[in-house]
Amino acid sequence: MDVEERDLLRVEEESIVAPLPPPRPVLARARSASRQPDPLAQIRHRRQGSASDSERDPGLRRRLGDMTKKYEALEGKYKALREASVVEAQSNFEKLRKATEQKAKDQDEVIAALKRELAAQSKTNTEVKTLRAKLAAQEAENARLTAESKALSASLQDSRNEIRALTAKLSTARAASEPPAKMPGSAVKVRANQAVATAVAAKSEEVKLLKLKEDLYSDLTGLMIRGIQREADEDTYDCIQTGRNGTLRFYLTVSHQTSAVAGTPGPTSYEDAEFAYTPLFDAMNDQDLLDILPDYLTEEIAFPRSSAAKFYTKVVDCMSRKFEE
């Protein structure tokens, strides 16, 4: 409430509570009682008097007009604010409704996308299970084929070893069955003699016995001696050792026994004879054998006669033992 409104209210209060005019003289008690004025009428009269006073006061009338204008301005502002608040509330409600609808629409789209992804994931899981089953079947088939391949490789290796052994035996048999050199005419004449014939027959029988012994030894140990080359200071044996791992061909050279005195033969030097081992490998056919043999059997070595049995035991073990691939 501003200053002008307070002044206007004060003027109205002063006009309402203005002092009453002095009473008229009473002629008699009864007359005064019957003619006593009405208080409401007096108040209305005073108000009319105050209104007339205000009409007569131009400043008060101007203030009243200003207050009326201010009231009308305030009422206009109130109506404008009320209309603006209603419009803004409607606008906010419309925005909120649109935002809610958009959010619901987005949620529906997200749910639909998740459902599609779930369906695709289920399909992918089914395909993965199918592929895993196929992979397991392929692995089992590969394992079977690998085992079959190993078995065939082992069978092929055994066949190769058998072929080599048979080839070596055939070569030895051919060498043994070659006809002897043609004897001179003097020997033929001597052979005609009965004593010479008997000696030759005995020698032939001895050769047959030696051949039988050699065949038996070869069957028991797998060692075949293809030939012997004798020289002045050493003998060279052409040997073939067969086994499950292949065929090993080597030269075994044995020096002639000599006594402690150089150049003098004697029985005391038998254990001092030296053996020399020289392997013979075929680069194309013996590669598998080279992979399993120890290093000391793939190169030339020398050892005394006392170690010959140990050496041959190592050879037989390497040729007959099963190696894991």
From TrEMBL:
* InterPro entries, A to Z: Csm1/Pcs1 (IPR040349), Csm1/Pcs1_C (IPR020981), Csm1/Pcs1_C_sf (IPR038608)
> Low complexity bias: where?
26-35
Q: Where is this region: Disordered?
A: 1-66
Per the UniProt entry, what are the Gene Ontology biological process annotations, in alphabetical order? attachment of mitotic spindle microtubules to kinetochore; meiotic sister chromatid segregation
- What's the protein called, per UniProt? Monopolin complex subunit Csm1/Pcs1 C-terminal domain-containing protein
Residues in the signal sequence:
none
Q: Name one GO cellular component term.
A: nucleolus
